[in-house]
Amino acid sequence: MKRLLSKLKKIRHFSRYQQLVTILVKYGFEDALNRYKISRLLYKKSRVLLRKESKKQMHRSSAQRIRLALQEMGPTFIKFGQMLSTRFDLLPVHVIEELQKLQDEVEPFSGVQCVQIIEKELGLSLNDIFAEFENDPRAAASLAQVHKARTHDGQVVVIKVQRPDIQKQIKQDIEILKDLADWTVKHVPNRMFIHPSELVSEFESWIQDELDFKQEARNMYRFGENFKNDNTLYVPEVFWQYTSGKVITMTFVEGIRIDHVESLKKAGLDPGIIANNGTIAALRQIFEHRFFHGDPHPGNIFVTFDGKIVPIDFGLVGRLDQSMVMLGGELLMGIVNRDSDTVSQVLIRLNRLDTDVNENAMRIDVYNFLDRYYGVPANQLLFEHLFYDLVNLIKTHNIQLPRNLYLVGKALLLMEYLARKLDENFNLFTVAEPYVDSVIRKKMGPSFWAEQTKQSAQDYAGVLLDVPRTLKKIMRKSSSGNISVTLQHQGLTDLMNEIGRSSNRLSFSLIIASLIIGSSLIIRTGMGPVVWGVSIVGLVGYILAGMMGLLLLLRIWRSEQF
Fold first, then answer.
1. Alpha-carbon gap, residue 232 to 542, rounded angstroms
2. Which residues of the chain register pLDDT less than 70?
3. Within its chain, how far is the Cα of 103 from the centroid?
4. Which end of the chain, C or N, has fewer beta carbons within 10 A?
5. Neighbour tally for 196: CB within 10 Å
6. What is the CA angle 325-291-424, rounded to 5?
7. Are the C-beta atoms of 241 and 151 separated by less than 8 Å?
8. CA nearest 377: which of 325, 338, 409?
9. For position 399, what pLDDT does the model report?
C-alpha cells in the first residue's frame, strides 16, 4: 500500500484522488478505505472532520450512500453508476434499484459559453444559423444542455450542446478508474464474472459513444426510419447541417412527460392506450428492429397532444443479432409456458463463460423457479419479479449472459414501470405473449431456416478451407522445432506473492542472525578497535542487527500477519 501511496503522490491526478476519497469518507465508507489503507490520502485533521459528517449519513442504507457518493463525484461517476445499473449479473438487486435513481441533472453552464461552442462547432455565427435563440436552457444534464431556437425559415428546433471541457474531465476520471481497476486486481480477491479492467474498458467505450453527438444523431435517424410508418410514435428530425460531434439540432416537439398522468388525462389522452402503444413500440425495437432505446426512463419520453409517443436522448442504445433475438424470445415463451427444459437449454446456449454448467442441478432450480408462479394467470405475472428471480438463478449457476440482454431487461423493467403508472391494471405479459409468439413463428419460417442453413454451410466451409493451411503451419513449426506449449496458472498469484514475501523475511532473518553470531564472535575474540573492553566492530554489528530486527517486526505488524 505504501508503494501505491507514493505512486499516487507523484501523479497529476492526486488532488482528484483526494476529492474522491473525501466523498467516500463523507458517506461512511472509511472502514472499507482503511482496510486497504487508502484513507491515508487524507490528512488526519480532514478525516476527523469528515467522520462527524459521515455520522449524519449512517441512517441511510449502504446502497443509498453509494448512489449519493457517485452523484457528488460528478458526471463520469454518475454515468458509471448508470452503466452499472444495467449489470444485474454483478450487483445485488437492492444496489441496482438504487443506482437506477441516479439523477442526471446538474447546474447549467452559461449561455455565452453555449454560443461559443455552437459557433466553433458549426463554423458560423449564431445569427447566421438562427433567427431566435433562448439563452436560458430548457434542461441541463451531466454531459449536455438543451436550448430552444428558431431557424431563419421559421422552424422551431432544439439544440443539444455538449458541456465545455467535459471530455477532458471524463478522460481524467477514466484514467483514475483504470488505476483503481489495476490496483483491485492485485489486492482484492476477484469474485466477479468480469475483470475490473474489462469493466472500465466497457465503460470507456460506452461513454465515448455518448460523447459522440454525431453517433447519437445517427441513432436518432435510424429510429426515425424504423418507425416512419408508425402512427403511435414520432422521433424528432435531425438537422444535419447544424449537427456536429458536440452539437445536435433537432425538431422541437411540444408534449407532456409520459409519467405526468393527470396532465395526460386533462389533455384528453387515454393513459391505457399510451401504455399499450409504448409497450408494443418497445417490443418492436427488440424483436423486429433489433435496435432499441437503452434508457427509456420517464424524463426521456414525452407524449404529444395527439397521443404520439416521442422518445429523446439516443446516446445509449442496444443492438441484438438475430440468434440473440430468437433465444430471448424462446426464453420468454419458455417462462410463460412454464417449460423448464426450454428455459434451461436457452440459458446454457446464452452463457458467455467457457465453463461447464451442472445441467441437472440447474434444471431442478429452473423447475423450482417456475413452480413459484404455477397457477398464476399470465395477466397477473409481473416481469419485475420474474426477472429478478431469474437473475438470482443465473448467478447461482455462474452463467453470464451477453450484456445487451441485461440492457433489454432494464428497458423492459422501465417500460413495465411506466405502463403500470399509466394504467394500474396493465400487464406486460398479456401484451408480450401473443406478440412474441407471432414474431417467433414468423421468423422461424422457411426463410429463417434457409438463412441458418446458409450461414452454417459458410461456417463449415470456412473451417474446411482453413484445415490444410493450419496443418501446413503445424508441420512447418514441428520440422523446425519451434512448437512450444504454454502453461498458465490460474488463481495462484496471491499464493506466489505470499511465498515471495515469506522468502524475503526468511532471508532478512538469516542476515540478522548472521550479524548477531558474527558480532558475538568478534566481541569474544576482541578483534578490531576496542573501547572500554568492547570491540567497536562487534558493537556496530549488534546495533545494525537490532535496527534490522525492529524494521522486520514493524513490517510484519503493519501487514497484520502474526
1. 89
2. 1-12, 35-53, 104-105, 187-194, 354-355, 378-379, 443-467, 469-501, 504-505, 508, 523-528, 530-534, 556-562
3. 16
4. C
5. 18
6. 80
7. no
8. 338
9. 87
What is the C-alpha to C-alpha distance for residues 335 and 390, in angstroms, rounded to an integer? 10
Look up residue 343 and give its DSSP letter: H
CB 423 within 8 A of CB 439: no
Give residue for cell 429452473: 366
Q: How many angstroms separate the CA atoms of 412 and 426, rounded?
A: 14
Q: Which three cell numbers stand for residue 393?
A: 438463478
CA distance 529 to 534: 8
For 352-372, what is each residue's pLDDT tens digit?
876 677 888 988 999 999 988
Instruction: Write the CA distances from 354 to 193, 209, 460, 489, integer angstroms.
Output: 11, 29, 22, 17
Spatial neighbors of 167 by CB under 8 A, at least 6 apart, are: 211
Catalytic hit among 89, 104, 173, 295 = 295
How far, in Å, CA of 11 to CA of 14, rounded? 6
pLDDT at residue 562, as a whole number: 44
179 has catalytic annotation: no
Around Cβ 468, how many Cβ atoms within 10 Å? 9
Which stretches of 297-426 are DSSP H helices? 322-336, 340-350, 359-371, 383-396, 403-422
Q: What residues have CB less than 8 Å from 85, skipping those under 6 apart?
A: 96, 99, 100, 102, 410
Helices (H), 134-288: 166-187, 196-211, 213-226, 261-266, 271-284
Secondary structure of 269-315 in HEC code, one letter for each residue? CCHHHHHHHHHHHHHHHHHHHCEEECCCCHHHEEECCCCCEEECCCC
- At residue 332, the pLDDT reads 85
